[in-house]
Amino acid sequence: MSKNLKPGNVLLIAVLIAAIVVFALVFAFFNFNLGEKAQTGESSVVKDEQVQKLETLSDSDEIGTIETDIDSTNLENLDQELNQVDQELPSL
Q1: Where along the chain do its domains lie?
Q2: For the segment 15-24, what is each residue's pLDDT rounded down to a tens digit?
Q3: Global pTM exceeds 0.70
Q4: 91: which DSSP letter?
Q5: Which helix (H) or strand (E) holds 21?
Q6: DSSP letter assigned to residue 58
Q7: Which of 7, 34, 52, 87 has its Cα between 20 and 30 A from that of 15?
Q8: CB–CB of 31/50 below 8 Å?
């Protein structure tokens, strides 16, 4: 230990550093909403016809029912809005 630092001064410095850390954590907690849970509930996704069809699939685990669900699922226009997303992406 240096001759200039007495044990009482070292303790004071340690307490001050701890107080600054606690203050920074409290500040971040309240100003950056770290204590709040993410809101759950309805998503902001617009439900088009394809999404509604996917949500109405059967709950059965029978092979015939699963095959019917797969056959009725239309994946042909899955990337229908991809070009629009590609055009809007550079503007972000």
Answers
A1: 1-35, 49-91
A2: 999 999 999 9
A3: no
A4: G
A5: helix 7-31
A6: -
A7: 34
A8: no
